[in-house]
Amino acid sequence: MAQQTSTPLTFTVRRHPTELIVPAKPTPRELKPLSDIDDQGGIRFNITQFHIYPGNPKMGYKNPASVIREALAKTLVFYYPFAGRLKEGPGKKLTVDCSAQGVLFIEAEADVTLKQFGVTLQPPFPCSEELLYDVPGSNGIVDSPMLLMQVTRLLCGGFIVAIRHNHNMCDVHGYIQFMTALTEMAQGASTPSTLPVWQRELLCARDPPRVTYPHREFDEVPVTDDMIIPFDDMVHKSFFFGPTEISAIRRFVPTHLKKCTTFDVVTACIWRCHTIALQPNPEDDMRLLVIVNARSKFKTPLPVGYYGNVICSPAAVSKARDLCNKPLGHALELVRKAKSQVSEEYVRSVADLMAIRGRPTSAFGSYIVSDLTRTSLLELDFGWGNAVYAGPDNPLAGFYTRYINHKGESIIVVPVQLSRYAMKRFAEELDRMLAPDDKGDLVIQEHLATLSRL
């Protein structure tokens, strides 16, 4: 099944007063500039993550909120920049004022069980604003807390940890490093197994800066009124890709690309369906930005424990008519080509571009995807065991996450946000591609006929 739907769920959350958690011990008071990769205009936002845990009888009557609150204060001794505030200087340069002002923490209880959320957990989560209360004045980038955490206990003994963190401070790999330290502290450790390393100067712009790639991800796109969709008209749904769905899509993969990754295949399919759903002008440039973790691309590896951003978002660009009319291999080739660009030099070129162009944001209207399926988000354990779901609940990008179904199969969860009518077209096009062999053969024949005309 490609699309997961569920009946609306409502519940009541009782929140305790919001607290400021400060480091458990004195920490250095200093200014720490972010890198120019941290300072990318496209990641100047807060991102929300949900970690959902079932109850565990072995933990007895332990309160997960109390355990995590105490562990958070201890973790901030090592990750003390998180307890500070960002300041903006000339050229929009961000610096952390390590003031130990603290992070926001909320303990809460909800009158709902984990079972009531449904068989399959996926974003968007019902009543997400209740599971993570937006403390007034807390959601800015500059002069705001860099982390907001709410631990909500459920009637069944399970609990949900919802976290909003500043993306400029870290990418998902840095976030997991911080969260791993937090879970270790929750289980009694006195020191994280991996000590944090700052050294953000390693990814600052060169002197003089020099841009060595085209960087279509930062194209300046004129914005017209018809490109802006009212928020009330937007629909946010998740689509699931298990072994059956992935096998169905691979029928459209040309022979010379048969060894491509599952992420590449799913992304090419999603990009094509997404474009068809939007019904753009055939001559429009359609951009897919693939968020790439570049840690493995450095000749001299970054220090173990470095938790800053090491990501870039190369663009795959195609005319809308080609994406809609050419076989899937067209989109697949472009996805692979975009990812293959990323190297140490590409990352340094992005850093230099930030410094030269005043930290531009990503090209307007780009479709952004990120593969989190191979991260250890599900394995973050506060003592109650692995999570049953872990990942972002953010409509800004398609963050691919993992879900383990009742058969033990690893399922890829892909959230999509579109206007109401575009979402209907997206689902219909995807269903055509996922049709069983007797119906899918017609779709394949149409693809082959198109290929013969090119």
From TrEMBL:
Family: Belongs to the plant acyltransferase family.
Keyword Acyltransferase: yes
Organism: Helianthus annuus (Common sunflower)
Keyword Acyltransferase tagged: yes
Protein name: Benzyl alcohol O-benzoyltransferase
GO molecular function, one term: acyltransferase activity, transferring groups other than amino-acyl groups
Entry's EC annotation: 2.3.1.196
Classification via InterPro entries: CAT-like_dom_sf, Plant_acyltransferase
Keywords: Acyltransferase, Transferase
Enzyme class: transferase
